[in-house]
């Protein structure tokens, strides 16, 4: 009985450890990963996950265009395929496009072939929109463990995480979201926003406040490619 309890305890601790590893922002077992860039320059990257979808994405494009800013959009292949003109509009506006998988499935207990298909189909949709830059990858829900990092390393791709997620609290209002983003920002920060979801009206309302607040602190908002290029 004691041995059984000890085994169950070990398995429980192992599972908890693997769960923590799967969601770590600043560590993974294989390949290149970045959650922020070490730089002394006052640069910050705004990144948006999911989409593109009509209405919400167009609203974000309007806000960014009104302030002459470029950002980074981690798109899903399924939505990029469904909205090719909108995906092309992101490219035409000069924004970076990243791969956020095809189906937005948690890539923890998956096979290499599944990961490869998800990457390839999304890459194809991004390239079809006219994007020619490097396609970095952000795992759905930030989850990865063994297989996904290994496949990314084999393809010489960088996993992009984040160090600030101001809208992680679904009940937060626009002012609180903006305050978190502005106060936590530091040189090299990568800010994750979920403004393309229809339910995230508070995030969309916070976006102009975030931009203006970061500018007031002396930050320059750049694309992920520009931020990575600032690495010493």
Structure report:
- With 232 residues, the protein is an alpha/beta fold.
- The chain has a single domain, classed as Alpha-Beta Barrel (TIM Barrel).
- Helices cover 45% and strands 12% of the residues.
- The protein has helices spanning 2-22, 56-66, 77-82, 84-92, 112-128, 147-154, 174-184, 201-216, 224-229; strands at 33-34, 43-49, 72-75, 96-99, 159-160, 189-193, 220-222.
- Strand 2, helix 2 and strand 3 form a beta-alpha-beta unit.
- The relative contact order is 0.21.
- The model is unreliable at 3-22 (pLDDT under 50).
Question: How are the SSEs placed, and which strands pair?
Answer:
Blueprint: H1 2-22, E1 33-34, E2 43-49, H2 56-66, E3 72-75, H3 77-82, H4 84-92, E4 96-99, H5 112-128, H6 147-154, E5 159-160, H7 174-184, E6 189-193, H8 201-216, E7 220-222, H9 224-229
Parallel strand pairs: 1-5, 2-3, 2-6, 2-7, 3-4
Helix pairs in contact: 7-8
């Amino acid at each position: 009985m004691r041995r059984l309890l000890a085994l169950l305890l070990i398995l429980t601790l192992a599972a908890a450890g693997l769960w923590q590893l799967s969601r770590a922002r600043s560590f993974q077992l294989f390949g290149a990963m970045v959650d922020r860039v070490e730089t002394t320059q006052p640069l910050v990257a705004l990144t948006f996950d999911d989409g593109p979808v009509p209405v919400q994405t167009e609203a974000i494009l309007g806000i960014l265009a009104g302030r002459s800013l470029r950002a980074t959009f981690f798109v899903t292949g399924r939505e990029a395929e469904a909205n090719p003109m909108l995906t092309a509009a992101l490219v035409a506006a000069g924004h970076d496009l990243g791969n956020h998988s095809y189906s937005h499935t948690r890539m923890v207990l998956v096979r290499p072939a599944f990961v490869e298909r998800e990457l390839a189909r999304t890459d194809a949709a991004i390239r079809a929109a006219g994007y020619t830059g490097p396609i970095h990858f952000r795992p759905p829900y930030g989850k990865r463990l063994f297989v996904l990092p290994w496949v990314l390393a084999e393809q010489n791709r960088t996993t992009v995480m984040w160090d600030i997620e101001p809208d992680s609290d679904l009940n937060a209002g626009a002012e609180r979201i903006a305050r978190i983003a502005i106060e936590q920002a530091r040189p090299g920060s990568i800010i994750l926003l979920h403004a393309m979801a229809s339910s995230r009206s508070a995030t969309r309302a916070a976006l102009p406040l975030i931009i203006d607040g970061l500018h007031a602190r002396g930050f320059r908002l750049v694309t992920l490619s520009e931020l990575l290029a600032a690495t010493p």
